[in-house]
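Here is one chain, start to finish.
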Amino acid sequence: MSIKKGVSGLLAVLIIIAGVWTVNFLWFKPFSFESFLFRVTAERGLDSPQTLSNLRILEGYGITGHNGELDDMSLAHDAKVMKQAKENLATLMSYDDASLTPDERFNKRLMAYNLHEKIDNEKFEYYDYPLTQLYGWQNEFPSFMTGTHAITDLKDADYYVERLKKARIQADQLMEQLKKREKMGIIPPTFILEKVKKQMTGFIAGGVEKNALYVSLKAKLDKLNNVSADDKARVLADTKDAIQTVIFPIWHELIGYVDTLKAKSTNDAGVWKFPDGAAYYQTQLKKYTTTNMTAAEIHALGLSEVARIEKQMLSLFEAEGYDITKPFSELINEFAADPKYYYPDTDAGRAQILKDYTAIIKEIDAGMAHEFRLKPKAKVEVMRVPTFIEQGAPGGYYEQPAMDGSRPGRFFANLYDIKATPKYGMRTLAYHEAIPGHHYQIALQMEQKDKPLFRKFLGYGAFVEGWALYAEHEALEMGFEKTNSDKIGALQSELFRAVRLVVDTGIHADKWTREQAIDYMIANTGMARSDVVSEIERYIVWPGQACGYKIGELTLLRLREKMHKALGDKFDIRDFHDLVLKTGPVPLTLLEEKVDAFIKAHKAA
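Its structure:
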């Protein structure tokens, strides 16, 4: 047999084997359990070109076509995804536990939990609001285009224009979603629709060349040296045309539709108003707390935590010379009214806030080795919340880094109302959103090489937000809250999350009005009214989500104490942090199993 004939025969065999594996991988039950986990994750990722653009995991291989596409938001696509989830669950459960390693069995349980969460709540699939002041499409599309869509060369710029033109398809799919909910009676409160209309009107008010979609692209093109002046001019002309002929007409149509919805809306704030609204709310509480706690239990816990934290704050106020015989709301407002805690209401003042946030993050990042072994490779930067969404956005939020390292993690600070950024609260917010909070946890989660791909993108709220609130607690314990005013700020942040338990359940289970919830939060936090209004309206359109923070934090503190008590002198807080961060976002019940297993292994050692 000649070498040539042997090689060609071997090649044919390899092609046949690869073909059989590929067919099996794509259409049937994969031979390997790990391959199945990868397939499920790949299905989800490849089904979302916008997610691919965010993660940037294909660009390094020269695959870029997804950057000119938008996600399918149609009802038909929803049905396809649900069918796929049911099929994946059936396949997942067909793998015999006896044939799996302990890690694989854990991954099986975790994916099953995730799939059940979607399938078991199919009845409530359309109980959310596609248009809101917080995460509505009219905010998410421009934010994605201006913040996530990368412009590194001419091809990226042309993809940008393609996506602007394809917004028409996505907007038609959005309208399909809106009309389905309208028929079901899933309509946002009137005051939410009014805010949405104000946002959309403002977005198109300045004309094409002042629109964020044009301004952002022009600024990015101006920085490129690898694109000619003629090509830049052509792309900008195409962008102007797309905004004028596609984007602005969409916005006008949506504004008109919002007016139509307003005529059918009420000011009832909670989801109790929906058909079977109480059952729906319970599914949201389970989703975001990963517990079976009822609304009544969470409400009672919130009231208890509010009382406990306020007592701690009173002792600090007394140490600072305040008259603690005054009502708490009056006392905290007196503290918050001191002008020394605020920056000038100017561009320079806002720029200084961003600089000071950066310095706070740099300081704690350099001083955590005695409590944390792990450290993400990705950096984090501080940015201002885009001005076109800041009125409806929270005080701060985090955006994960790109997987290819092209974009760092980002902590966005809302600078709309200068009074909403008191100096005494800045440290805590930075620790929550950046280090050792969201950035540490999420960047490390994405960077772990020993986890299946699907675990790099899980985001259980009780874990993710619970960790961020726990990070605030850790920073306080490590001594980074240096003054009594800083400590008051830290406790005020914790109090804020305890208040959330009360107002979220109050709104959605106890039929509180928007005004009742605002008054309660102002009375018990001392936050700026503008910030409180944004927060309360966030809970109204995102039921249950705000409850995950405090319940997650309390669970992490309980598990840490459980490990400490069980191990005694063998306890090292770095071991606890390693275990939690390496496990990554999982339901709290599964995290406790991991802690119990660690305790058992190390007590026996």
